[in-house]
Design a protein that fits this description.
Blueprint (H helix, E strand, L loop, with lengths): L5 E2 L9 H10 L18 H18 L5 E6 L2 H13 L5 E6 L2 H10 L4 E7 L20 E7 L1 E2 L4 E2 L11 E4 L16 E5 L10 E6 H4 L12 H6 L9 H17 L2 H21 L17 E4 L4 H13 L2 E2 L10 E4 L6 H17 L1
Parallel strand pairs: 1-12, 3-4, 3-5, 5-8, 8-9
Antiparallel strand pairs: 2-10, 6-7, 9-10, 11-13
Helix pairs in contact: 1-7, 2-7, 3-4, 8-10
Bound molecules: 4'-deoxy-4'-aminopyridoxal-5'-phosphate.
4'-deoxy-4'-aminopyridoxal-5'-phosphate binds next to helix 3.
Length: about 350
């Protein structure tokens, strides 16, 4: 086998080695069908089991009861930016959004195409370096929903609380922190996430939808855009992305085998403590732009004394087998993505590399 690197890519990102190995074994002959999962019907009993196991595991890991549906759709999380207002925004109502950076800004832009948007909170004036406090998130009673982005992949911020939305349905883009820590998922009326960070490969978007939301959907929508289509057919109205869903199922098995979200959370906390500890202990050299109480556990962003040094770190890291450390082109700097599949060893090794770089530069 060729050597695998330490992969800190922000998405698509590293997958658990055990999952890749299982996939490799399954690829030529899945469940004695003599075919791969990619070559069998989405109506076959073999695929049906994968599909329903993935749904059941999601609900089990999230602690959700039968008032929630788990859906799998294509189109990436970005498609949901438009589908949410198309389904739920109506005359006399507003879509309330907390703007915490690039991805929520994009969600807002789409909503504006379909109705009125209310800015329920924003950290734009401070360069999106923090998450607005719960008490600062304000929205009118006629809000169709309150939308938040729980983890801001580019800016490196994360909600460490669930905002109280009262009677207003809470909708969250959890693309970059879903299933990374314990949280009361039942407080959300809808959760969506592109799979390619914490759940599996790109190509499938997971949606968690509370049943009561299905009653609020606007009529007259194209079939595939109406969430009721997917909810009523268990995401099998048309051909779902079967290979990505299969890999999601393997990742969910892997999370469960480790002991579920409490164990995953403990490991993720240890990982982020290593990197933030390094930044804080060397504050004369590294600068973390994000306010401490808003720091993301998934995407640690920081700056070096100069852009030249940042470029040098990224290129030397790559040569040493640590890839994907370059910050997003819109913000620069360094970003260490520590999704579930990144090992504790991976966090320790990259910290060691960064510390040596600092000593030598
Ligand atoms: N939301 C967040 C928080 C993201 O990080 C991303 C992708 N990086 C998206 C949405 C867009 O996801 P997709 O590429 O699946 O459309």
């Amino acid at each position: 086998m060729t050597k695998r690197v330490y992969n800190y890519n922000p998405g698509p990102s590293t997958l658990p080695l055990d999952v890749l190995k299982k996939l490799q074994v399954d690829l030529l002959n899945f469940e004695n069908t003599g075919m791969s999962i990619m070559e069998i019907s989405h109506r076959s009993p073999e695929y049906d089991k994968v599909h329903n196991d993935a749904i059941a595991l999601t609900k089990e890991l999230m602690g959700l009861d039968d008032s929630f549906k788990v859906l799998f759709v294509g189109g990436g999380a970005s498609t949901q930016f438009a589908y949410i207002p198309m389904n739920f925004l109506k005359k006399g109502k507003v879509g309330a959004y907390v703007d915490t950076g690039t991805w929520s800004t994009k969600a807002i832009k789409e909503a504006q195409l379909f109705g009125e948007v209310h800015l329920a909170g924003s950290s734009k004036d401070d360069g999106y370096t923090f998450i607005p406090k719960g008490g600062d998130i304000k929205f009118p009673a006629n809000s169709a929903y309150l939308h938040i982005t729980t983890n801001n992949t580019i800016k490196g911020t994360q909600f460490h609380f669930v905002p109280d939305s009262g009677q207003v349905p809470l909708i969250a883009d959890m693309s970059s922190d879903i299933l990374s820590h314990q949280i009361d998922f039942s407080k959300f009326s809808m959760i969506y996430a592109g799979a390619q960070k914490n759940l599996g490969p790109s190509g499938v978007t997971m949606i968690i939808m509370k049943d009561t939301m299905l009653e609020k959907i606007n009529d007259g929508l194209p079939t595939m855009i109406d969430y009721r289509t997917h909810a009523s057919k268990n995401s099998l109205f048309n051909t779902p992305p079967t290979l990505p869903i299969y890999i999601v199922k393997l990742v969910l098995d892997w999370i469960k085998d480790q002991g579920g979200l409490s164990v995953v959370e403990t490991i993720n906390k240890a990982k982020k403590d290593i990197i933030y500890g390094l930044i804080d202990e060397n504050a004369d050299y590294f600068r973390g732009p994000v306010q401490k109480d808003s720091r993301s556990w998934m995407n640690v962003v920081f700056r070096l004394p100069s852009e030249e040094l940042e470029q040098k770190l990224v290129s030397e890291a790559k040569k040493a087998g640590f890839v994907g450390l370059k910050g997003h082109r819109s913000v620069g700097g360094i970003r260490v993505s520590l999704y579930n599949a990144m090992t504790l060893e991976g966090a320790e090794k990259v910290a060691e590399f960064i510390m040596n770089f600092r000593k030598n530069n």
